[in-house]
Amino acid sequence: MGGLLSDPEVEAVWVSTPSHLHCEHVAQIAGASRHAVVEKPMATSLDECQRMIEACAKNNVVLTAGGARSFDPAFVAMRSVIDSGRLGRLGGLAAWAYTGWILRPREPHEVDVSQGGGTVFNQAPHPVDVLRLLGGGLVRSVRGATVEFPLAGRPCPGYINACLQFEDGTPATLMYDGYGYMAGWELVPWGETPARLSAAEGPMQYRKALRAGTADEYGGKERLRFGSDRGESRFPDRDGNWTPMDAGIVVAACERGRIRQSASGLYVYDDDGRHDELIAGLGDNRSNEVPELRAAMDRKPSLHDGWWGMATMEVVLAIMHSAAQAAEIRLSHQVPVKR
Amino acid sequence: MGGLLSDPEVEAVWVSTPSHLHCEHVAQIAGASRHAVVEKPMATSLDECQRMIEACAKNNVVLTAGGARSFDPAFVAMRSVIDSGRLGRLGGLAAWAYTGWILRPREPHEVDVSQGGGTVFNQAPHPVDVLRLLGGGLVRSVRGATVEFPLAGRPCPGYINACLQFEDGTPATLMYDGYGYMAGWELVPWGETPARLSAAEGPMQYRKALRAGTADEYGGKERLRFGSDRGESRFPDRDGNWTPMDAGIVVAACERGRIRQSASGLYVYDDDGRHDELIAGLGDNRSNEVPELRAAMDRKPSLHDGWWGMATMEVVLAIMHSAAQAAEIRLSHQVPVKR
After folding, report:
1. CATH of the structural domain B2-68+287-330, one choice from 3.90.340.10, 3.50.50.60, 3.40.50.720, 3.90.79.10
2. Residue B149 and residue A179: Cβ atoms within 8 Å?
3. Which candidate from A175, A182, A273 shows the least CB-CB separation from B204?
4. Which class would CATH give A69-278?
5. Distance (Å, rounded) from C-alpha A124 to C-alpha A103?
6. What are the chain B neighbours of A144 within 8 Å (beta carbons)?
7. CA distances (Å), A107 to each of A110, A115, A332, B62, in order?
8. How do residues A271-312 score in pLDDT, each as one tens digit?
9. What's the gap in Å between the CA of B65 and the closest CA on chain A?
10. Is the Cβ pair A207, B271 closer than 8 Å?
């Protein structure tokens, strides 16, 4: 980190270190007067989030809570349709996701909840951030549950559900199943391709290896890194068609219509039926992230600032607390979507 | 009713009168020593349910809480897979439904919540009964929300969501959107056929007629009745493939697999992948209802007895109360699935 922070060419640093180190690393980066983008989860506690925000403010640098699906062009476009008012006011939201998060090779810290690991810390931020983006940001209460299904090497819950309610009363439902039995692509007509069916074999074999205690977690992880020799072949969805990913299928219910993702943009339903509205650059899931950082560095308002990231973190922690206490949790650190 | 109840050939009566008359009608039927099957919703209050149960017990006749999707062969089969233990214990449940309930022709009582009308009373019993069947029956708490989107002639909420928790901790999520913008069949690869796309035109026109105040509710209802001249042409799903209906897509998450409905039976997912397990008689949604009544009349244990129906009613009412109070509701009238 020392070399990086003394290089005069480095303006900003993307923090994708283990979650429990985010706070310390952002403080170092801010101390060196560099801007920071921090991957989800922003940190492992609200206190850490607060310290990161303060460190950046004190050093007059930008903090962007990055790595979330709420940057995806389709969700940004959904938010625009809601804002346009053409379907009337928003009334309800639902997100459900089926992924294989738990079956990807993992280092121990990634599945250790005490270090900010596990599916809830690492994946709940996706639907939570998207629901907050679409619902206006201000979640009032959370009733959540988490389930851990036994699997060697994965000592963390991998199944999450929650009912959120926003300040204006809008309800949202969230279901996330990261155990890799079902896949999100099974829930869209264009999802089941020979490439995806065949790609599903890998995770299934990995589950067997985990059960047998023969999984090569470090080696497997190394092979899946960006720039590894497997390259893009690990993306069977690169056929140009969107399929549900980390945030899942997300449906916004408005007074006079519905909105959800289609293969190449959005399905917008209104009194005249279903319309498929194309979105340019849909395949590039990160296309809004760097521009937002750049704008923030130019002191323009940034949606995903530290306070936004902390508010998402509060919802994620509330899901865990609600699950532990079997009770609804009221929130107090929420911030609205900046218009 | 008098003629029906004095006919010596009549052993049992199927009650599909308006919901707020169920209690009175069951009391009459029981008083005439006839068995009764009552359509969902069983009644409009727990007190009515209790009186119906007592009237039948006093007259030594059977009361079956009928009309629910939990009779569907596929859900009965799902329960069997769970019971078999081949996927380990159940850990989570999710149901999400997209229907056009609100766009079918309706008499005024059907959309009047004070008379047991509206989507919550009439449709929530489907996923609730199915989730109770799969989860073992004993719901501990409900956090729900209901949303009413403005539509002339439909003064009732048509959008429902809820997080349930069972006594053993198993969580369940429920989402029901009856406004007919999206359709359940859009969420299965085999769902989108020319017949279904074309059948979607009717409800869409009906929404426009409702908005314009020109809908012929009584005439429309008459045409849709069983035995009307439109006959089976109103069932575009009669291509032999199941598509999500009133209870929606329902996924049971177990320790070592998942279960949900396929086009012709169940998808059972385990460590070896997805298996399509056929179910005979899947198309006949009522094939378990009459046999259960017959068995009950022979004094065999009946799952859908009055206490079962009352327990489902309690969950449905709790969704309404939770929505009104923005608070979680604890339940006290739940009964287990009889084995």
Report:
1. 3.40.50.720
2. no
3. A273
4. alpha beta
5. 16
6. 163
7. 6, 12, 33, 59
8. 999 999 999 877 666 668 888 999 999 999 899 999 999 999
9. 29
10. yes
